[in-house]
């Protein structure tokens, strides 16, 4: 019976291995008394953690770049981590734990799930780690020490006001290409747009989720045009969704007579504003969020002063077709300050 | 899962050691490679970071892998029968939302809600098993479909909302107790006990032998009087129940019911199984190997993080390790022939 013997011997070895592992585990347990929360009292080398929603989204890539620059300038060590996908709460929890274990002084985090991340943040703060939310607030907002973010409601309002002015009294048929249900950033921008436009959800002819993705934005717009061919204003959660909408409109020959507005201010998106594909966008500043976050941790490490409350990192309306009564800057400024 | 008339266990655990080719077999054993990889990784991280080699950190790693680890036990059972389960993460997510909502909003007693959630997951497993066995459909397709069904049900039932304010008993397994200078979570213990339990069931019961036999050759197993149909359905159901336990562990770990959870856990569990030396072609491998596989992933993620290496490198290394593991499996299969 060659099979059974092979099987049992390998099992035996595995069992022995497990025993060895258990031994090392317990040996380590008794060996070091430091535990996980090794808070170094001396300022020595300060560690700052940055946890983004994903590794791949250009917005977060830029945020990381901003943090790296700031960390270099301040002479501190930056650790980074990210979820595997937008919404990966478990991945972010793990990253928080590992960073606390490695003795960071502060953690900057863009929560994937505003509510679900809260218990992990509370544990980190209980160990004396300063936690600052970047870009996206936690729920409740008081779960973190401070929030450095764009005012997303205002970002939406700006393009809402712009769209209202640009329509010049024409009856609007609105399509809303949203982010995803229940994600605060998307909800705030959407509501801000409606507020700025002076409309309500009843006035939206077609609302679709895009996940902020270009191809899904295109599909959503195609379906919206199918449902309501008369759409003439398109609100989009971000510029990839806006470019997807543009592609769909162009296929129907409608790209000239439909007004697309967006939020984000990425370089590709800002260029699209310059090229006339998107009418206007609200630009936000991830680099600034990250840089100020790193500085706040350094301040905390130096004199124990914790940042608190909400810091608005600013938003600017970017368009080359300025409207009366709506403050904006042109794409020249936009491209100089864009991210991505 | 009836332990039908089984031949008495003829091979004592020491039978392998008496064989002349013990050294060679040791090298060839499916779990040897993974174990060496794990120990090397531990050694490497111990030297490169001062925080790695602490009891607190090891406890943390086990705590971080307990959810995927529990899923991976079920995944191992299914892969041993030459099947695969793509639905495990989604089924777990659904189970966790059922438990969380039933207890937090449906005001069911927590223990009833937990039983219900685990039962629902077991139901999904049963359904998978029936479809695989009775129609029959390829496991890949059945569980791919079930992945979407469970994912959608999770989002419909949760109304896309994260469930907070869970009653205490739901998060009890996430609590810690001190052991020396280290804090261990109860959930970690549950996972370890489940691993040992299933390892025993696979190595020392008739049921376990039948699972291996089924994976090696379903036809031969059937001709030898094994009731392969019941066995297959039983394996999928058992896996489903394990996903239910994973759902409870997930809730206890994060403290919330999260409809977005588990989206990559199906692939993560398969990764752990493969890294642990279990063959994707069935009939070869072990649950303890899977435990080592789970730890390898956990150790790399933790260690690289402590070193300050960006998380994308963890993905890179995991990918390379998976390919290496399958290569080793293939080569050792050829030699075994």
TrEMBL record, chain A:
Cellular compartment(s): Cell envelope
Residue ranges of domain Periplasmic binding protein in the record: 48-306
Signal peptide: 1-29
GO molecular function, a single term: carbohydrate binding
InterPro entries associated with the record: Peripla_BP_I, SBP_2_dom
GO-annotated cellular components: cell envelope
Keywords: Signal
Top-level taxon: Bacteria
Pfam families: Peripla_BP_4
PANTHER family: D-ALLOSE-BINDING PERIPLASMIC PROTEIN-RELATED
Family according to the record: Belongs to the bacterial solute-binding protein 2 family.
Name the UniProt record assigns to this protein: Sugar ABC transporter
Organism annotation: Streptomyces hawaiiensis
UniProtKB/TrEMBL annotation, chain B:
GO CC aspect terms: plasma membrane
Signal peptide: none
Assigned keywords, A-Z: Cell inner membrane, Cell membrane, Membrane, Transmembrane, Transmembrane helix, Transport
Claim: Protein transport is one of the keywords in the record: no
Entry membrane topology: Multi-pass membrane protein
GO molecular function: transmembrane transporter activity
A Pfam family this chain is assigned to: BPD_transp_2
InterPro entries xref list: ABC_transp_permease
Keyword Membrane: yes
TM stretches of this protein: 26-47, 67-99, 111-131, 137-157, 184-202, 233-251, 272-300, 306-328
Highest taxon above the source species: Bacteria
Subcellular location: Cell membrane
The protein, known as: ABC transporter permease
Lineage of origin: Bacteria, Bacillati, Actinomycetota, Actinomycetes, Kitasatosporales
